[in-house]
């Protein structure tokens, strides 16, 4: 169910409506796209390996952002680079930069 805020015309809309996705980019621009149909996709071995790696990176990002000190570092970096803290944490995981182990 999409969420819509009205302030004058429409202030914000985000979520999904049937097969259309509404979201906002980190720079603030509205993105409207069609949901992909992934029901008939057969993943290759390389894709399966990458998906597993991304799951590990996502788990690292979740743990890193749960730590207030590490979260502050990522939020500061994210603001400078106009990116999301979670995306930076995932990128760091793939680059081998583990801020959790440096405590």
Give an overview in words:
There is one protein chain. This protein is α+β, with helices and mostly antiparallel strands. It has 2 domains: 3-34, no CATH class; 45-95, no CATH class. Helix content is 46%, strand content 21%. The chain has 3 helices and 4 strands; from the N terminus they run E-E-E-E-H-H-H. It has helices spanning 45-66, 68-81, 85-95, and strands at residues 3-6, 10-17, 20-24, 30-34. The protein has a 4-stranded antiparallel sheet, with no helix packed on it. Helix 1 packs across helix 3 and helix 2 (68-81) crosses helix 3 (85-95). The longest helix is centred in the middle third of the chain and has 22 residues, at 45-66. The chain is flat. The model has no long low-confidence stretch (mean pLDDT 88).
Task: Give the SSE map.
Layout: E1 3-6, E2 10-17, E3 20-24, E4 30-34, H1 45-66, H2 68-81, H3 85-95
Antiparallel strand pairs: 1-2, 2-3, 3-4
Helix pairs in contact: 1-3, 2-3
Q: CA-to-CA gap between the ends? A: 41 Å
Number of helices: 3
Taking all Cα atoms into account, the compactness measure Rg is 17 Å
Uncertain segments of ≥5 residues (pLDDT<50)? none
């Amino acid at each position: 169910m999409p969420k819509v805020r009205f302030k004058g015309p429409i202030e914000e809309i985000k979520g999904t409506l049937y097969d259309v996705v509404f979201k906002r980019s980190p720079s603030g621009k509205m993105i409207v796209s069609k949901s992909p149909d992934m029901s008939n996709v057969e993943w290759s071995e390389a894709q399966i390996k990458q998906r597993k790696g991304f799951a590990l990176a996502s788990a690292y990002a979740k743990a890193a952002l749960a730590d207030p000190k590490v979260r502050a570092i990522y939020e500061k970096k994210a603001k400078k680079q106009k990116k999301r803290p979670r995306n930076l944490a995932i990128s760091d995981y793939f680059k081998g930069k583990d801020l959790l182990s440096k405590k």
